[in-house]
TrEMBL record:
Protein name: DnaJ heat shock protein family (Hsp40) member C3
Organism, scientific name: Phyllostomus discolor
GO function term, MF aspect, one: protein-folding chaperone binding
TPR repeat start-end pairs: 37-70, 105-138, 222-255
Keywords of this entry: Disulfide bond, Repeat, Signal, Stress response, TPR repeat
UniProt record, GO biological process: protein folding in endoplasmic reticulum
Gene3D superfamilies found in the cross-reference section: Tetratricopeptide repeat domain
Cellular component terms (Gene Ontology): endoplasmic reticulum
InterPro entries per record: DnaJ_C3_Co-chaperones, TPR-like_helical_dom_sf, TPR_rpt
Residues annotated as signal peptide: 1-31
Residue intervals passing through the bilayer: none
Length: 369
């Protein structure tokens, strides 16, 4: 269920759009709308005003089905789509409105807004220029001029961003892209470009955030899912890596890179799950063997080596093998000095080995983490 506050917020964001609907209250009759279509339009308008978006949408669907050449029906349906946050669905309806009524400046202006957010700057500018040439109202003229200036600025920033990227100045490219994406929030290509910059700058989690957005903005974006999966894999998050690569294969089961990566991640995931099950059963020697296999399977990703040694350290500690535990735990702590699990297991191993001074020191260090 959609929260009332969410509906209110979305309706507020398209309030200027809704005002036009008031002017359209009687236009249905001028278009020769039949009685059933008129009922759907009127009921849909009332439901929209009440914030009952799903019900309003159903009424406007029926109106479009009843009269496919009625621009009012398409316009009102586009309004609901926008209020629901479904801009992709609103865009073709606005285009249909413009086809049916070329001089409908409000629809063209709204389409220009959506195209600008998608980063389709040339198309957006074309709409804004046509609004200015079509005898617009004073407010429409001001808005179109303002958006033209904004679009021109985005064109300039995009050129700078691409130049910076080509020159490997990723920090500058990110700065330009940040400014563009404040306006062109639905531009999948620019988000993918910024993700590449983040990867080059060693910020994989920021890259993942942009790629996740891009995967939703662009249909069948297998490349984004593949990159997200490989980034999670490099970060040591094998479960999320597996989940994302499966999304890639849902879109294209023959995707070669996704399938190859899927096999690797699945094998690694199975080893880790098996090792953890053995630990829960108290079969520490067998669990150690599994984690050694993990390190052999993926020696190129340090995160899996450290995590495996952390668990082997735990196994040795629980299996009353303090000498081995101290050795492996110390290796983990060389890589991660504040690793709480390794500190705890090494402290216990010191005490088992009757190395009380070291044990007390280790416990003190643990308390300080």
């Amino acid at each position: 269920m959609v929260a009332p506050s969410s509906v209110t917020s979305r309706l507020g964001s398209v309030f200027p759009f809704l005002l036009v609907l008031v002017d359209l209250q009687y236009e249905g009759a001028e278009c020769g709308v039949n009685a059933d279509v008129e009922k759907h339009l009127e009921l849909g308008k009332k439901l929209l005003a009440a914030g009952q978006l799903a019900d309003a949408l159903s009424q406007f669907h029926a109106a479009v089905d009843g009269d496919p050449d009625n621009y009012v029906a398409y316009y009102r349906r586009a309004t609901v789509f926008l209020a629901m946050g479904k801009s992709k669905a609103a865009l073709p309806d606005l285009t249909k409105v413009i086809e049916l009524k070329v001089d409908f400046t409000a629809a063209r202006l709204q389409r220009g807004h959506l195209l600008l957010k998608q980063g389709k700057l040339d198309e957006a500018e074309d709409d804004f220029k046509k609004v200015l040439k079509s005898n617009p109202s004073e407010n429409e003229e001001k808005e179109a001029q303002s958006q033209l200036i904004k679009s021109d600025e985005m064109q300039r920033l995009r050129t700078h961003a691409l130049d910076a990227f080509e020159n490997s100045d990723y920090t500058a490219a990110i700065s330009f892209l940040d400014k563009i994406l404040e306006v062109c929030v639905w531009d999948a290509e620019l988000r993918e470009l910024r993700a590449e910059c983040f990867i080059k700058e060693g910020e994989p989690r920021k890259a993942i955030s942009d790629l996740k957005a891009a995967s939703k903005l662009k249909n069948d974006n297998t490349e984004a899912f593949y990159k997200i999966s490989t980034l999670y894999y490099q970060l040591g998050d094998h479960e999320l890596s597996l989940s994302e690569v499966r999304e890639c294969l849902k879109l294209d089961q023959d995707h070669k890179r996704c399938f190859a990566h899927y096999k690797q991640v699945k094998k690694l995931n199975k080893l880790i799950e098996s090792a953890e099950e053995l630990i829960r059963e108290g079969r520490y020697t067998d669990a150690t063997s599994k984690y050694e296999s993990v390190m052999k399977l993926e020696p190129g990703v340090s995160e899996y080596t450290v995590r495996s040694k952390e668990r082997i350290c735990h196994c040795f500690s629980k299996d009353a093998k303090p000498v081995e535990a101290i050795r492996v735990c110390s290796e983990v702590l060389q890589a991660e000095p504040d690793n709480v699990n390794a500190l705890k297991d090494r402290a216990e191993a010191y005490l088992i080995e009757e190395m009380y001074d070291e044990g007390q020191s280790a416990r003190g260090r643990l308390l300080g983490v």
